[in-house]
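Researcher: Next sequence.
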Amino acid sequence: MEIIETQNAPAAIGPYSQAIKANGMIYTSGQIAITPNGELVERDIKKQTKQVLENLENVLEEAQSGMDKVIKVTIYLENMDDFGIVNVLYAEAFGDHKPARSTVAVKTLPKNVLVEMDVIALAYDYH
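Model: Next structure:
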């Protein structure tokens, strides 16, 4: 098991890792709309979703993986009315790759953000 840590995504703000690599798999912690330097992105669903996807991409890159190796995504939304906007940005980030996905409405997210996502992915060196 390997702990994944990158300066290109926000540092963990609790007793957890940005991701864990085990047996050829990458398990990310939930990413919210915080920049790598710790700045919270304004409460705008487009801006927050873009930051979350960028954070995930950077964590996966550090783990020798990428968005094209993602098998499962879980999306947590404060408001399901934002689903359409998130879905468009999600589709742009993944292109033709279509991992399995769950989307869940939640009452409150950390730091009062609008969206959080976590992923499970294959490492590039795993077949």
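Model: The CA atoms of residues 39 and 92 lie 24 Å apart. Residues 45-62 form the longest helix (18 residues).
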